[in-house]
Amino acid sequence: MLHLNKGAEKRLRAGHHWIYNNEVDNQKSPLKGFVPGSVVNAVDFRGKGVGSFMINPHALICGRMISRQQDRDLTSSLIKNRLKQALALRDMCFDAPCYRWVYGDSDGLSGLVVDRFHDILTVQVSTAGMERQLEVILDHLQRLVQPTGILLKNDGKMRTAEGLDTYVRVAAGQVPEQVELTENGVRFLAPLMTGQKTGWFYDHRPNRALAAQYARGKTVLDVFSYLGGWGLTCAMNGATSVTCADVSELALEGVMRNADLNGCADRVQTRLGDAFDTLDQLRLEKQRFDVVIVDPPAFIARRKDIEAGERAYQKLNDMAMKLVNPGGLLVSASCSMHLENDRLRDMIRASARSLDRHALILAEGGQGADHPVLPAVKETRYIKAIFAQISPGL
Fold first, then answer.
1. Domain-terminating residue out of 37, 67, 97
2. Count of domains in the chain?
3. pLDDT in tens, 274-299
4. Which of 189, 199, 219, 238 stands the most exposed, by the fewest C-beta atoms within 10 Å?
């Protein structure tokens, strides 16, 4: 039994799914006495049940909810049902089987991520509780969709925090070096084994589609392009030219492979180098674009990084705004959960004022339906994108 300190139950009863280690009454239930990955009942300071949780005494988030009912274990039947529910939701939302099938807490499987690329699956496990059930999970994944290959991409930082080892290996079938996916009607090849995270970022799918609508007949700059998700979607929807910029030569080689795959290579070029250096060089060359897209990696990985991270986001938006043609569009995106949407919006305002520009926000976007948000768990909402028209100052 896990006993909580007085008041710790309020957040859980309001809908949250996590217990932090400083919320546990260590006199009544010393954390060190629990086995990592085991399942226990949690009770409030009065002894009233608040649910069943996976426990890891070594992690900051020491309890992850399985159910609001007591005595619920992470059984094979429960895992199967939640995988089926998650699959049904994605199949309802998307035409092609290319999506994030499981998004951790939002799908009731905290610490599990499954990305689907037609008949290939990439699986990431980041909690001790899910690690103990890995073989059961793999068995159900194979039974539900009969994939030709499953890759375990267990090399994330969260595994280290949970006391788990890191590795990348094929768990079932065969996984080719390049796996094809379809997003917004555009074909892409992604290197699952060597690529970033699970090999692809489905989370910005709706924002890429919206950017492409604005890019028809326009010139586009896609900064932090990775494999060209934003830029090539624009190219395939009528952009006259697209420049993809990234620090990784391998990523830019992937951009051109994907451009060839879609028959738009004649309208796509690449720039290799640090994003800030590239933006500065483009300014010195007096180049301007109708649409400038900046989708950086998370500058704010932890709460203590907020101040430095916000400075980086502000600098990035300043530099990007300088390259937007009068009346053009700045798309400022972020995957930092700790960057509030209001702060990103305020950065657009600050950049516009310091550069004497007139900014109009046309739209704001979030993550796709395969990354559903739990209303009470703000950590499940991390994607944001602001679409702002930039004109000369009034």
1. 67
2. 3
3. 999 999 999 999 999 999 999 999 99
4. 238
